[in-house]
Amino acid sequence: METTSTMQDSMTRKKALVVVFSYHHNNTEKIARAIAGVLGAELQTPEEVHPEKLREYDLIGFGSGIYSATFGAPLLALADRLSFDAGKKAFLFSTYGAPGFIADKKFIEDNHRQMREKLNLKGYQVIGEFGCAGWNTNSFLKYFGGINKGRPDENDLKDAETFARTLTEKNNEGK
Ligand SMILES: Cc1cc2nc3c(=O)[nH]c(=O)nc-3n(C[C@H](O)[C@H](O)[C@H](O)COP(=O)(O)O)c2cc1C
Questions:
Q1: Which residue among 83, 95, 96, 134 is least packed, with the fewest CB closer than 10 Å?
Q2: What is the rounded distance in angstroms from the CA atom of residue 41 to the CA atom of residue 57?
Q3: How confident is the model at residue 172 (pLDDT cuts 50, 70, 90)?
Q4: What confidence score (pLDDT) does residue 14 get?
Q5: Is 47 exposed, middle or buried (0-12, 13-18, 19+ CB in 10 A)?
Q6: In this predicted model, what pLDDT tens digit does every residue of 75-93 receive, in sequence order?
Q7: Ligand 1 atom nearest to 72, measured from its CA
Q8: Which residues, judged by CB distance below 6 Å to any ligand atom, belong to the binding site of ligand 1?
Q9: Which is nearest to 167 in space by CA: 56, 13, 55?
Q10: How close is the Cα of 153 to the center of ligand 1, in Å?
Q11: Bridge pairing between strands 89-96 and 125-133
Q12: Using CA atoms, how far apart are residues 110 and 1, in angstroms rounded to an integer?
């Protein structure tokens, strides 16, 4: 039987989807699962998404490892396939392999720019962005164990959950 609070949850909670591309060490998938857990969201890969079904969702997250300073090609291609949907709420998240002293808010937003611009062209409104470090053994880095080993860690997952809670509040604004 539903308690009053779970009934309220199901009334205020909007249907959410998290789409993730994560192949290097599944770093971004860990963040995706943390966010999806808070939002009660379904998780899909870009290949699993049917663009015509996205109208069912009130909030859609797009997450990727950062490869050559942008989102993975399958997500960028998905953004190109989306139908126009004015005001659709979306959020972006990523894991990057750069060391912490480089990776400030601007670095994260710069890596997200291409995806954000593609979504904006489709009428999507990006209401939040999140990024954290991920283990990176790309190229020569593999010869000495990589950088950001152990990331995302427990703190990163907690930060991702906190980020997801702010999304719920923003998504419910004005409803
Ligand atoms: C081919 C490739 C290119 C990468 N390019 C960048 C980059 O430009 N900037 C960066 O910060 N990290 C870069 N990385 C590191 C990844 O962003 C990082 O390891 C990320 O956590 C991988 O996410 P995933 O395990 O979800 O695929 C690159 C990794 C690979 C494999």
A1: 83
A2: 10
A3: confident
A4: 59
A5: exposed
A6: 999 999 999 999 999 999 9
A7: 27
A8: 22-29, 65-69, 95-98, 134-136, 138
A9: 13
A10: 16
A11: parallel
A12: 47
